[in-house]
Amino acid sequence: MEHDDSKGAVKAYEPSSGLAVSIDDPIQNPGLPPHRARLTDVDVKAEKRAERTIYTLFYISVAASIWAVAAYMLFPIEDMEFVSIRRNNLFIGLGIALALLAIGIGAIHWSKTLMSDKEYVEERHTTRGSEDTREAVVEAFRTADQESGFGRRKMIRNSLFAALVASIIPGVTLFRGLAPHNPDYSPAELLKQTMWEEGEYLTRDPSGTRIKASDVTLGSAFHVIPEKLAALSHSDGLLEEKAKAMVLMVRMRPELLTEREERKDWSYDGIVAYSKVCTHVGCPVALYEQHTHHLLCPCHQSQFDVTDEAKVIFGPASRPLPQLPIAVDDEGYLIAQSDFKEPVGPSFWEMH
Amino acid sequence: MSTATEEKKAPLGGRFVGATANYLDERTSLSGLVKALGRKVFPDHWSFMLGEIALWSFVVVLLSGTFLTFFFDASMVETHYTGAYAPMRGIPMSAAMESTLSISFDLRGGLLVRQLHHWAALTFVAGIGIHMLRVFFTGAFRKPRELNWVVGFVLFVLAMAEGFTGYSLPDDVLSGNGLRIIDGMVKAVPVAGPWISYMLFGGEFPGDAIVGRLYTLHILILPLIVIALIAVHLVLMIVNKHTQFAGPGRTNKNVVGYPMMPVYMSKMGGFFFIVFGALVLIASLVQINPIWGYGPYDPSPVSAGTQPDWYIGFADGALRLAPPHLDFTIFGKVYPMGVLIPLVVLVIFIILVAIYPFIEAWVTGDKREHHLAQRPRNAATRTAIGAAGVWFYAVLWAAASSDLIATHFHLTMEGVIHALQFLLIIGTVFVYFFTKRICIALQKKDREIVLHGFESGRIVRLPGGEYQEVHKPVDEYERWKLVADETFEPHVPRPNDQGKIKGKFRASMSRWFFEDRLQPLTNAEYRAALEHQKHALHEHGDGGHPEIESGDTKH
User: Fold this and answer.
1) Domains and CATH numbers, chain B
2) Is residue A34 part of a domain?
3) What is the distance of C-alpha B481 from the center of its chain?
C-alpha cells in the first residue's frame, strides 16, 4: 500500500491520453476555499448543547437495550396467542432498533459538530509500482526461473501442467453421483410418464375421493389427482408424482368444445381434463375463468383456451396443455382412458 | 503505538493501553498498518455512503443468519408441526418448513430475526445496485478501478444468488414455485436440460435433496466468496484511494477530505448502527414472507399475484415479456425459445454491464488514471447508455408485476404485456436519445452560468423603459465545478505503411461516443464574457447598486 515514488523517477511514466485533448488556456483551479467555522466552533453554548445531545443519545441507547431485554421477558409467546407473537416481535424490535439508532445518530452528530472539520489534502501516487520496484520484481522472477529451470526444463514444466489439469478431473467425476444410478433410468423418459393409466380413477385433490360425472356441474372446475396418488406418502414420491399428474377438470356445454376427430372421445359429455402443469416453466395453471373458459397461469400469465384443446391464446407458453383422455365406469365415476399422450410441463430437448 | 520508546512521557491512553499496544505491536507489527491507515484521508460526499449501505446490511445479514442457523433444520424429511400456530398444527410438511414456523412462533424474538434477515438481504442487494449506479454515472469505474468494478459486479450476482438460495429454504408454496420456475428454465437448456434438473434436485422435481443442497450453498460457499470479494473490494479501494468530485482545490493528483481517525471511524461506525437500527425497526414493524399464510409446498396450489423478491423481478419479467410461439424443433430436438430468448437476453445484458469499463476504455483509448468522479451530464453518451440500461432493467422489473398492474389499474393483462414489450424496446432507445439531449442541455446551462452569471431574481428597469433581470456572476469556487479542462476528439483512422486503413470500427464508435460534444471554455473566453457583462451593467447606469457591477459573491 505504500509507495516510494521518489526513487523511481528515472523516466517519467506518461500513459497515453487516448482521444483526450487538453485545452491551451483552461480556467484555473481556484484552490481550496477558506474554511468556514461551524456554529459549534464559535458558540460555546452550541458546543455544550451538541455535547449534551450526544451523551443523551448514548444514554437513551443504554436504556433502550435494557428495555429490549425487559421486553423479552415481559412479552412471552408461550400462551400460543397470535397477538403475543406480534407484541414480542414489536417491543423487542423497537428496543433494539432504538438502542442501535441512538448510537449511530450520536456518533455521527459527534463527528459533524464536535470533531474537527478541517479538510486535509493528501497526494495521490500512480497505482503502478515504481520502476525500481517493477524491475526488482522482474529480477525476482528471472532469478527464480534460473534457479528452478522452469523455462528451460520444458518436459518437467509441461508434465506438471498436465498433472495439475488431470488432477481436477477425478474431483469432477465424483459429481457423477448426482446422476441417476440406474442406467436405464433416463430423466427424459421419466418426464414422459405420469401415474395416469387406463382405468385410474379421477379423484379430488387432496382428499382422494372419487368423482361422479354427475357431480361435475356445468361451469365447475375440479382440481384432480389420480386415486393412487392420494395413497402415496411423502417418501414414496407423493410430491414428485403430483408435480406431473395434477389435472384441472371442467365441464361446459358440449357444443362449446372444438375437438379434433381423433380426440372426440377424450372428453365426456362436456367434461374435459387437462394437465395443470404449465407448458412454459411448470407453474400450476390454477386460475379458471368461468365465463370465458380460459385457464390462466398466475406465474407468467400464459392463457389457455379450454374450449379449443387448451391452445395457448396469450403469453409466453408455446404448447397447449396436454389433455387427459377420460371416460366413466359402470357406476358413473370418472376414470382415465390412458396416460397423457405427450409429456406434461415445460418443453425439453428430448421431448419427442 | 510508539509508547514503549517514550520513557519519560506517560503513555497515550494510560499505562494499560500503552502496555497492550506495545504487546500487540511487538508480536504483529501492527503499528505500521495503523500509521498507514490511521490518518488516511477520505473524500466526503453523500453518494459515497451508498456502498456502505450494502456493506453494513451484509454484516446484519451475516449476524442474523448465524442466529437462524442454530434453529433452522435444512431437511425435507416429512414431519408434522406441533408448535404454537394452531392453523398449521398437524399438517404434514418438511422439517425445513416446520423449523421455520418454529422460529417464527415458538422462539422469542425468532420472528424478529427472521424478518431482519430477509429485510437486510433485500437491502443488501438494493445497496449494491444503487452503489453500482453511482459508480457508473460518475465514471468512477475508469482506470485504475476497472477491476474493482468487476469485483463489485460479481458481488452483485452473488448477492442475488444468496438471495435466491435463501428464499428457497423454508420450503413453503412460494419458495417451491420459485424453484419450479428454475426447474422449468433448466429443463429448457438444450442437450442436457432434464439431466441437469435431475442432478440438481437429486431426482425428479421437487425431490428431497434441494433444500439441503441450497442450504450448503447459502451458508457456506457463497458467503465465503462474498466475504473474500468484499475484502478484495475494500483493499483495492484503499490502494486506489477513493474518487472525489471535482471541486475547488481538488485535482486528479490529490485527495481532499477528512482523516480515517477520528472522523470516518465515527461516521462509518455510526452509519453501521444506523443501518442496523433502521433494519431492526423495519423488521419489528413490517411483516415479510409470512409463510404460515402460504402453507407447505405442494405442486398443485398457487395464488394469484405471486411475485419473487424484488431483485429476481427482472428475470421473472423477462420470462413474461418473451415473444410467444417461437419454439422450434430440429431433427426431433426441441428448442424452447420462450425460455431461451429471455435467458440469452439477460446474459448479454449482464455481460455488457460487467465489461462496460473496458468498452469505454477501448473507445477513448485513454490510459491515464482518473480519480475525479464526473458529473453525469459531462459524460453525455455514457449517461445516456446508463439511463437506457436502467430503463431496460426497470421495464423487465415492472413486468414481473404485470398482473398486479393490470388488476390495480383496471387494464387488460394483454394490454399491459404489449405496452411493456413496446416500452422495453422503443422506450430504451427513446431514453437513450432523451438523456443525451438533457445532458448536453445541462452542459450548455452550466456554460451559460459561467459566462453570463446566474439569474439573481432582481428586475431592473432601464432608462429606455426596458426591463431586464440582473445576472450575477458565480463565485470562483462555484464556477470551477462548472467548467471542464479537457475534451475528446473522435479517432481518425489513417492508412498505415501498406496503405491499409485500420481501426475503422473504433473510429465510428468514438464518433458516436463523442458526437455533439461541447468545446470547453478557455480562460480568455471567460474573461471576455466577464468584461462584456460588467460593461453591460455599467451602461444600464445602475450605479446605486454596486453589487450588480462587482458581482455579489455570496449567494
Assistant:
1) 3-32 (no CATH), 39-301 (1.20.810.10), 437-550 (no CATH)
2) no
3) 25
Same domain for A200 and A280, yes or no, is yes
For helices B413-422 and B380-399, the axis angle rounded to 10 degrees is 160
Question: Among residues B487, B480, B235, B222, which one has the least CA distance to residue B379?
Answer: B487
Q: Which of B109, B332, B519 sits opposite A352 (nearest CB)?
A: B332
C-alpha span between B99 and B105 (Å, rounded): 10
In one letter, which amino acid is B365? G
Cα–Cα distance measured from residue A297 to residue B458, given in angstroms and rounded to the nearest whole number: 63
Pick from B241, B237, B273: nearest CA to B257: B241
Is the CB of A231 inside 8 Å of chain B's CB atoms?
no
C-alpha to C-alpha distance for B66 and B218, rounded to whole angstroms? 11
CATH of the domain at A225: 2.102.10.10
Total number of domains in chain A = 3
Cβ atoms < 10 Å from Cβ of B367: 12
- When pLDDT is cut at 50, 70 and 90, the band that residue B547 belongs to is very low
Q: Residue B85: closest CA among chain A residues belongs to which residue?
A: A80
CB B276 within 8 A of CB A181: no
**A280 inside domain:** yes
Is A176 in the B-facing interface, judged by CB distances under 8 Å? Answer: no
Asked if A274 and A208 sit in the same domain, the reply is yes
Range of the domain at A88: 39-113
Instruction: Please judge whether B276 and A104 are an interchain contact, meaning their C-beta atoms are less than 8 angstroms apart.
Output: yes
Q: Which of A53, A61, A65, A239 to mutate to probe the B interface, most B CBs <10 Å?
A: A239
pLDDT digits (tens, 9 = 90+) for B181-225: 999 999 999 998 999 999 999 889 999 999 999 999 999 999 999
List B460's β-bridge partners, or say none. B468
Distances (CA, A) of A172 to A159, A164, B234, B461: 21, 13, 33, 85
The predicted-structure confidence for A267-308, as pLDDT tens digits, reads as follows: 999 999 999 999 999 999 988 988 899 999 999 999 999 999
Q: What are the pLDDT digits (tens) for A175-230? A: 888 887 777 778 888 899 999 999 999 999 888 999 999 999 998 899 999 999 98
Residue B54 C-alpha cell reads as 450494502
Judging contacts by C-beta atoms under 8 Å, the chain B residues touching residue A277 are 299
CB–CB contact A178 B202 (8 Å): yes
At position A153, the amino acid (one-letter code) is: R
Confidence of residue A314 (pLDDT cuts 50, 70, 90): very high
Which of 10-29 (A) contact B at CB < 8 A? 15-29
**In which residue are the cell numbers 529451470 written?**
A149
Residue A21 within a domain? no
Q: Report which of B454, B457, B477 is spatially closest to residue B468, judged by C-alpha positions.
A: B457
Cell 429606455 locates to B464
